[in-house]
Amino acid sequence: MAVARVTELIAASKKSFEDAIQQGVSRAVKTLKNVEGVWVANQTCVIKKGKIDEYRVNLKVTFILQD
Fold first, then answer.
1. Taking the C-alpha atoms of 46, 27, 34 and 41 in order, what is their torsion angle to the nearest 10 degrees?
2. Could you tell me which of 1, 12, 18, 66 has the fewest CB atoms within 10 Å of its CB?
3. Tens-digit pLDDT string for the chain (67 aa)
4. Spatial separation of the C-alpha atoms in residues 15 and 31, rounded to whole Å
5. What count of Cα atoms within 13 Å lies in the side-chain half-sphere of residue 60?
């Protein structure tokens, strides 16, 4: 039986929400072992001068704990 843990992180991109998600996942797998999934809990934008300047996502990353 496996035991999983969930950790939350925030990732950002100047391009898109999809790119922000990919940036977050890419960074998570560098540090966390056995990443099994990610849940996008929230999406927000930073507005500057009336335009979208940055896309941000709150991610919940699930990974399996090692014995």
1. 0
2. 1
3. 789 999 999 999 999 999 999 999 999 999 999 999 999 999 999 999 999 999 999 999 999 998 7
4. 24
5. 7
